[in-house]
Amino acid sequence: MKYVFITFSGLSLPVAYKLQQEGNDVVVGQIGDIKSYVMEEEAKKAAETSLNRERRLRLFRNMVKIQPAERVVENLRLAKSASDYFVFFEENNLYRWADQVRDLGFEGNFPTREDYLFEVDRDRAKAFVKKHYQKLYTPEVREFAKASDAISFLKETRDIWVLKGKHDHAKTYVPTMNDVDLAKGQLIEMLNNFPQEYERLGFILELFIPSIIELTPEKMYYDGVPLATTMNFENKSFGSGNISIQTGCAEDLVFPTDMEDRINKICFPPVVDEMARQHKGLFIWDASILINKRDGKMYFGEFCSNRPGYNSFFTELAQTGPVTQFFEKIVRKESPFSLGTVGTSVRLFNLSRDEDTEHVAANISVDYRQEIEKDLWLWDVRKNQRGKLVTVGSDWNLAVITGAGKSIDEAVGRMYRNVDGFAFVGAYYRSKDDYLSLDYSTSIINRLNYGLERGLYRLPFDVKVGEIQTR
């Protein structure tokens, strides 16, 4: 099998690199112009600074074969044996690129515009949930186009709200204060400081759900055939104890579940199977669930429709053996997972900054012990002329390190031993004590226990949940 990756941000480059290391023929199609990346209606206003573009295009230089995406797509059109290729589109907003090769007979994943809209169009998603997810509530939402309008609303409200931007650069912000006035002040501060990011595609204020338990089930298909379900517990906050700003994912825990588990019946109604049958190749569907511990009500969070999550994709792959095996199994319409495994991940952030510009520091050496390579998913890196790994400075997300095993303590233990084998000046990551903590209600282990107590799923691996800290 030959592998082709289409990328803008570089999210999937760690997977491409792994496949190449395993001896596969891999080529990456790099989208150069941001106007070819965003939705059609955004293209006119879309802009990228010269520095950001220059650094983005350096990602994985001298590590994988990278060509302009236009050339890669043209070569795909000329390919004589389409079934020998797996084409991977790392995000669902790459649907315009997927459209160019969707019907040519390739293996792969092929997102559509409709898939992307499920993620960014909150009204569309909310209407879909009300129609098809009978056991889920939808939180109250207010839509805004202007920061000033939202600020006026916040000054009058007596409720606590969560700020969610529709653009990738407009970060979700959950107030850290229980006091209404202080919480409102935090949101107003975000809107005053970053109005352009939130106004680019609009944003919402979503009514805050107290005592929240968040979990994310996922279902995977190939050519409409259900392959596997997994459960993901993610800590998005930068700081231990789930404090500070939100990141894409600071750490997570993922394990395969039985398709008959209660949570899967709730989160994957028949309409999801119907949608999967309308998609060629790999189709991934997840819906985050927010549970109010006070009354047990389950609320819809958001869809990640027909795209992998990052870190969770790495955490899943850590449980499958060689990455090649994952792709070969799904093409054969086999589950790539085995019940009884569990995977964990932690993200390493680059806190080093250039002394003059305060940009994320570039050209800082990255080193590691060779034995951790299987569980190391490098991100913001390239190789210099001497063949040395150095940072690019495109983003503060430096790398993800995973662990896998037959129990949580085995997976977590392996993960942090791997972290000990990674050398970088200025790296930050959340600690092992934090990962295994029972001291705050939203910790991974506490949420895992809560779902187990509610009978939402069964644990197919060897662990005495709640006693893990004493092992």
What does this structure look like?
The strands form 5 sheets. Strands 9, 10, 11, 12, 13, 14, 16, 19 and 21 form a 9-stranded antiparallel beta sheet that branches. This protein has a 5-stranded parallel beta sheet with strand order 3-2-1-4-5. Strands 6-8-7 form a 3-stranded antiparallel beta sheet. The chain has 16 helices and 21 strands. It has 471 residues and is of the alpha+beta class. Strand 1, helix 1 (13-21) and strand 2 form a beta-alpha-beta unit. The longest helix is centred in the middle third of the chain and has 14 residues, at 180-193.
List keywords for this structure.
single chain; ATP-grasp domain-containing protein; Dna Ligase, domain 1; Glycinamide Ribonucleotide Synthetase, Chain A, domain 4; nine-stranded antiparallel beta sheet; 21 strands; five-stranded parallel beta sheet; Rossmann fold; 27% strand; 471 residues; alpha+beta
Arithmetic mean pLDDT: 94
CATH-defined architecture of the largest domain? Alpha-Beta Complex
CATH superfamily of the largest domain: Phosphoribosylglycinamide synthetase, C-terminal domain
Total number of strands: 21
Q: For the terminal residues, how far apart are their CA atoms?
A: 43 Å
* Structural category: alpha+beta
